Amino acid sequence: MFDLSLLSRKARPLVGLDVSSSSVKLLELVGGDGETLRVERYVIEPMAREAVVDGNIANMDLAVDAVRRALRRFGAGVKGVAMALPASAVITKRIMLPGGLREEEMEVQVESEANQYIPFALDEVNLDFQVLGDAVGEDQDVEVLIAASRKEKVEDRVALAEAAGLKAEVMDVESFATQSAFDLVVRQLPQGGKDQIIALVDVGATMTRVTVFLNANEVYTREQVFGGNQLTHDVARMYGMSVEDAEAAKKNKTLPETFAAELQRPFVDSLALEISRVLQFFFTSTQYNQVDQIVLAGGCAVIPDLPDVVKSRTQIETLVANPFSGMAVSSKVRPKALVADAPALMVACGLAMRRVEA
Ligand SMILES: Nc1ncnc2c1ncn2[C@@H]1O[C@H](COP(=O)(O)OP(=O)(O)OP(=O)(O)O)[C@@H](O)[C@H]1O
Ligand SMILES: [Mg+2]
User: Fold this and answer.
1) Which strands sit side by side in the sheet containing 141-150, from one edge to the other?
2) Lower Cβ count inside 10 Å, N or C end of the chain?
3) How far is the CA of 330 from the centre of ligand 1 (A)?
4) Ligand 1 centre and the CA of 298: distance in Å?
């Protein structure tokens, strides 16, 4: 049910629901189909720490509470949502199939292909596929993306939505949703980022994910266990606060003056070092020897000085992602807050852009 055959299809926009380790994010975009999209509303609601671990729902009750709280703040009128599984829960593979196959013929081919590389019985997985690129003639092969995930991973998220009164109509993959939002960011670059090697650096609460793209193709990806939680824990320790209070104080900027120099700056320095290390791995393990642009995303992207420090350490142009910069903004949304939250809303943005076909 990664968006396709297993769920009903409706030609209306869906609200993006991103459930991650640190928060629940809801985002609604309206318009589209030629019109400028408008950011209608969004919320970022903190998630209890033990609720989602490594992308898995570890405590359903706590996760449901967070989604309900998010919905209360978001407002009424939400039913259909687009959700995503973490990339780690999904096996994807690209295969070539003859063009001109009927849907059912393709299903048979996909299943037999999937049998060969999925390490579980097929009745334990949700399997879906999507033809990539434009439809071509009958005599040409088409590239097909297969995605498979263990059923319980999908069912957990569907159940989470349901318990909060929502219906998961699309189950995407976080990395795909991120890439849709990233495409919007890349379009803002000179020449639309054409032929540029661009590293998307997503610094979340627990993980830093670096994905390198060239002309919308992923050429490298790597994850490091490093994220904003480190800084939050340092704050909690230094100022004798609970982790929850430390997290809130960090975001609301209500910490003592010593925070910037004693905690934030060392964190930014380690993060920049971490990023430059990952790029070194990229250079040594691929044919590429340069990166033209770094795009920072994830909640930590807005930490002051981070772009400058990353730029000076790596000698690579660095900007902070804002997938909404070409969109209109409803009067319900504070533009300044949106810019600050934008890098953390990449997955939610990609999900909210999903239109389910009729
Ligand atoms: N304004 C801010 N200033 C500093 N840090 C912030 C700010 N906003 C969010 N963060 C930090 O960003 C992190 C959350 O980012 P994000 O929402 O991208 O993470 P996540 O997707 O839940 O985590 P992960 O991808 O690691 O599972 C937290 O550590 C949070 O403290
Ligand atoms: Mg994340």
Assistant:
1) 90-98, 141-150, 125-131
2) C
3) 24
4) 6
Distance CA 258, CA 266 (A): 12
Q: For residue 341, what are the CA distances in angstroms to 44, 160, 207, 259?
A: 8, 24, 18, 21
- The DSSP secondary structure of 178-242, one letter per residue, reads HHHHHHHHHHTSGGGGTT-EEEEEEE-SS-EEEEEEETTEEEEEEEES--HHHHHHHHHHHHT--
Pair 27, 71: CB distance under 8 Å: no
CA distance 332 to 43: 11
Is any atom of ligand 1 closer than 6 Å to the C-beta of 250? yes
Coil, helix or strand for 308?
Answer: helix
Instruction: Find the angle CA(167)-CA(172)-CA(177) to the nearest 5 degrees.
Output: 120
| 255 Cβ below 6 A of ligand 1 | no
358 CA to centre of ligand 1 in angstroms: 35
pLDDT tens sequence across 104-148: 998 998 898 888 888 788 888 898 888 887 655 667 888 888 889
For the Cβ of 23 lying below 6 angstroms from any atom of ligand 1, the answer is yes
The protein residue with its alpha carbon nearest to ligand 1, atom 8, reads: 299
- As a whole number of angstroms, the distance between CA 81 and CA 76 comes to 13
* Rounded Cα gap, residues 262 and 242, in angstroms: 19
- Predicted model pTM: 0.92
Q: Give the pLDDT confidence of 230-263 residue by residue, as tens digits.
A: 999 999 999 999 999 999 999 999 999 999 999 9
Domains and CATH numbers, the chain: 15-87+152-179+329-352 (3.30.420.40), 89-151 (3.30.1490.300), 190-321 (3.30.420.40)
pLDDT at 2 over 60: no
User: CB neighbours (10 Å) of residue 163?
Assistant: 15
| Residue 205 beta carbon below 6 angstroms from any ligand 1 atom | yes
